[in-house]
Amino acid sequence: MPEEIPRVELTPAAADLLRRLYATHGPLMFHQSGGCCDGSAPMCYPAGEFRTGGSDILLAELVVEGVVESVPFWMSRSQFEVWSHTRLIVDVVPGRGSGFSLEAPEGVRFLIRSRVVNS
After folding, report:
1. How far apart are CA 38 and CA 41, in angstroms?
2. Cys-Cys crosslink for 90: which of 14, 51, 54, 55, Cβ 3.0 to 4.6 Å?
3. Residue 59: partners with Cβ closer than 8 Å, 6 or more residues away
4. Nearest Cα to 28, choosing from 58, 53, 61?
5. What whole-number distance in Å separates Cα of residue 7 and Cα of residue 85?
6. What would the pLDDT profile of 48-85 be if each residue is shown by its tens digit?
7. What is the Cα–Cα distance from 30 to 42, expressed in whole angstroms?
8. Which residues are CB-contacts of 11 (< 8 A; sequence separation ≥ 6)?
9. Which string of DSSP letters, residue by residue, matches 74-116?
10. What are the CA-CA distances from residue 71 to residues 64, 81, 98, 119 (Å)?
């Protein structure tokens, strides 16, 4: 049986940042909604602070070394329809986004890179 390609993965820089955020804020979660401005960037919140519902899909439970709980990665269903053929790679870049994501005070922001996957 072929190994399943992860739908979402983290760069080493993203994993490092999640470890720092976890040390400050405790359990974490991601949500990517789509839309304008920073809506197409993954937002990191304390776990449970962003309310998910029927219009959201849980894409992954990210395991980060040094973080006790997995970090769920949620995406709006409409955004997933656009990205369903890709593997999402969560990375970190310099600069501050305009959203409410926990990394904003760090002077960096999470960013999605993607790779097309075969169906």
Report:
1. 5
2. 14
3. 7, 8, 73, 74, 75, 80, 88
4. 61
5. 9
6. 999 999 999 999 999 999 999 999 999 999 888 888 88
7. 6
8. 89, 90, 91, 92
9. EEEHHHHHHHTTEEEEEEEEES--SS--TTGGGTEEEEEEEEE
10. 8, 22, 22, 26
User: pLDDT tens digits for 92-111?
Assistant: 999 887 678 999 889 999 99
Longest dimension (CA), the chain: 44
* pTM for the predicted model, two decimal places: 0.89
- CA-to-CA distance for 66 and 114, rounded, in angstroms? 25
Instruction: Measure the CA–CA gap between 69 and 85, rounded to whole angstroms.
Output: 28
Instruction: Quote the tokens at residue 53.
Output: 């519902």
DSSP 65: T
